[in-house]
């Protein structure tokens, strides 16, 4: 099912708002059996909406419009559609009463300006909005189905999910199955090498895409046949399993949380260059207090020495960014905070602070379990934020690999 | 200057990539004197590019195209433009040699597939790409200026900034001046009330918009006359100065860093519910090691008690989320880590852990300076991430307000 999308709003054209609705709709539609093949963004004006509707490529029978359904004078989508469909809207007394009662419960009075939100089509249909007052419109004009939704992301998503996507599914014989395999600790080229012939599939029914980020590479497998997609995912799994931490929306900190919980182990952190990012990520997961006890952000050398107990001589002899300091940090946070595992990160995040011998990006990560302490050296990038993110991800991955082998 | 934008890419239509280029271009163009008034997204196909170029509304003489300039078979923008301009491209021997030499320095060989990146227009012009190998194209066809740039955000931005935006400025008599005033600690309605008549300006040359987020409200002032915009900004400043922490891209942690540096004061943190987020934000700023010494992430009660030294009886009598615990956390992190100021946060981030008496969102923030300790109670929201972000922002703002009054 070919679909055209029109997103309406001067704020989108001026770039003050990023059009995340379009991406969300495109992605949901493709997994429901549709395809956005044409997308236009226009300003809040009757003429532009008319012009846009008249430009829809021949062969597209479904049009989704978002934006311009609110109560203000900028919101002209409904008017444009009434005109386009040659329809006369009628006042919906019941809905007006409903809106008034809803607000009076909160001791508020509904302004008269909202009256246009109680208009409903004469010929077309209403699409309910469970979250807000601006309802959607559904018209059939000259063999085309036109759906108009509000631009507020939460409301649009709810209405798409409840009404529009099920309808697209019902109209489509096949839909795209999309699986994402999430990897970290290996570059795109390394993955491609290990995956060998799997990448060079000549099967037109399956598509494999690498999506590299600085914290890892996602492998996206898509196709219309679920069995073929699942087979391909399994094949990839068997070749690069070590680097895979999850699927689809899985987060590394979530996976680690589950593993720690299963093994009944606790974790603490000693962070220098990441400044608390690892603790922040671990505690983004509900229930993380079961396995993450806390940590010490030892940003200054004094805190490393006085509060984390790193030997003064270690700091003097090897420096704060060294394998030796990382080792003591991990061991000491483990013993001082009384956890099963202690994780430490120390590095030069940049932009300043680098030398020829110890350049920006040099990072040591250590993991102590009371018997052994592993320390690894990494050379990341020149950008501070990329270094913090790469360090945190690599540190979390070191915990994952440790737990995998335990 | 009216401008049409065409962004090309199947990944944009399928929503696997969010079109952030369009927003960036729209925003830069508007501040250079242009206006994107029409934007279309299409797939990687010759026919669609032709159709799109033919749909540009009458009166638009400038067209910017991004995407589809790479070396793969999907990248068809250059071909479409050669056809549209009725031009025959020529092979650029110099550029091909340049590309080969560039790669051979890295011990790499340039694949033959890249030969099309060394083609250049017969009639049109080349737009240099300082960051990558795909150069831009510049054509004049039937009185229209067509500019094609690669879709890689870094390359596109560099080329826009170096070549296209200066040209737009040179063609435009007036451009939009945009100033953003960043506030926190007050809601949109509160700001509007305090600003009074400033908001209801009837001057058509100036526009004021509120952009509320959970961490604060940005006030955007825009207009074509710099003096008028500056006057309005000053007027707003004088009404709500207490809530303003910066302008435009300023970050709260950056402002605090400057203030601490000026006053030669150091800060440490004791974080419970924010789990390290405050430390992370403070250390995002280069040079933060001058004023931020570190902190203790006291996520579990044991760490609060054993490592941060919160009295066992305080925890038992008042609970971990209490004004009393927050007070001790701030005072103890200050004295243990030996800083001028100690900041603490303890709260119920949710989704679990709330009770009737202490619901999700209840948060205590304390700031100790060795003489006094301020503690404040807040009731945030029901969402974990929103609570963490609101808590961190409010805690940082408490430091800002303290330093402002010192």
Q: What does the radius of gyration of chain A come to?
A: 28 Å
Query: What's the CATH first level of the largest domain in chain A?
Result: Alpha Beta
Number of strands of chain A: 17
CATH superfamily of the largest domain in chain A: MoaB/Mog-like domain
**CATH topological fold name of the largest domain in chain A:** Molybdenum Cofactor Biosythetic Enzyme, Chain A
- Tell me the greatest interface: A-B, 75 and 75 residues
Descriptive key words:
Maf protein; homodimer; 14 helices; Molybdenum Cofactor Biosythetic Enzyme, Chain A; 406 residues; elongated
Please summarize what this structure is.
Chain A is an alpha/beta fold and 406 residues long.
Write the topology of this structure.
The structure is a homodimer of 406-residue chains.
Chain A: E1 2-8, H1 10-13, H2 20-30, E2 35-42, H3 46-55, E3 62-66, H4 77-84, E4 90-91, H5 93-105, E5 119-120, E6 125-127, E7 136-141, E8 144-149, H6 153-171, E9 177-183, H7 188-195, E10 206-213, E11 216-223, H8 226-240, E12 244-247, H9 252-263, E13 267-271, H10 277-282, E14 292-297, H11 301-307, H12 312-318, H13 323-337, E15 341-347, E16 362-368, E17 373-379, H14 384-405
Parallel strand pairs in A: 1-2, 1-3, 3-8, 13-14, 13-15
Antiparallel strand pairs in A: 4-5, 6-7, 7-8, 9-11, 9-12, 10-11, 15-16, 16-17
Helix pairs in contact in A: 2-6, 3-4, 9-14
């Amino acid at each position: 099912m070919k679909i055209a999308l029109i997103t309406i709003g001067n704020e989108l054209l001026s770039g003050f708002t990023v059009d995340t609705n379009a991406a969300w709709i495109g992605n949901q539609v493709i997994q429901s059996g549709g395809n956005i093949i044409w997308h236009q963004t226009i300003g809040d004006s009757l003429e532009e909406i008319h012009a846009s509707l008249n430009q829809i490529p021949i062969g597209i029978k479904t049009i989704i419009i978002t934006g311009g359904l609110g109560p203000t004078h900028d919101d002209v989508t409904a008017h444009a559609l009434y005109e386009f469909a040659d329809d006369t809207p009628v006042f919906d007394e019941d809905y007006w009463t409903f809106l008034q009662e809803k607000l009076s419960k909160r001791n508020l009075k509904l302004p008269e300006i909202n009256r246009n939100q109680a208009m409903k089509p004469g010929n077309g249909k209403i699409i309910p909005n469970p979250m807000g007052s601006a309802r959607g419109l559904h018209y059939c004009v000259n063999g085309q189905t036109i759906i108009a939704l509000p631009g507020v992301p939460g409301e649009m998503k709810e209405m798409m999910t409840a009404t529009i996507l099920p309808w697209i599914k019902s109209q489509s014989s096949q839909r795209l199955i999309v699986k994402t395999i999430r990897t970290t600790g290996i570059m795109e080229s390394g993955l491609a090498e290990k995956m060998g012939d799997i990448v060079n599939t000549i099967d037109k029914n399956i598509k494999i895409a690498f999506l590299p980020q600085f914290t890892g590479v996602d492998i996206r497998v898509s196709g219309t046949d679920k069995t073929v997609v699942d087979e391909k995912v399994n094949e990839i799994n068997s070749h690069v399993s070590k680097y895979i931490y999850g699927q689809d929306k899985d987060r590394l900190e979530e996976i680690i949380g589950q593993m720690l919980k299963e093994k009944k182990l606790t974790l603490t952190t000693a962070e220098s260059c990441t400044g608390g990012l690892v603790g922040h990520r671990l505690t983004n997961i509900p229930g993380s207090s079961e396995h993450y006890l806390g940590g010490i952000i030892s940003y200054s050398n004094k805190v490393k020495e006085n509060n984390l107990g790193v030997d003064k001589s270690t700091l003097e002899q090897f420096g704060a960014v060294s394998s030796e300091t990382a080792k003591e940090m991990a061991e000491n946070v483990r013993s001082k905070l009384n956890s099963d595992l202690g994780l430490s990160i120390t590095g030069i995040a940049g932009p300043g602070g680098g030398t020829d011998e110890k350049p920006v990006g040099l990072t040591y990560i250590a993991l102590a379990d009371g018997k052994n302490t592993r320390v690894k050296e990494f050379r990341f990038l020149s950008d501070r934020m990329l270094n913090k993110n790469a360090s945190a991800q690599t540190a979390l991955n070191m915990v994952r690999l440790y737990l995998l082998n335990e």
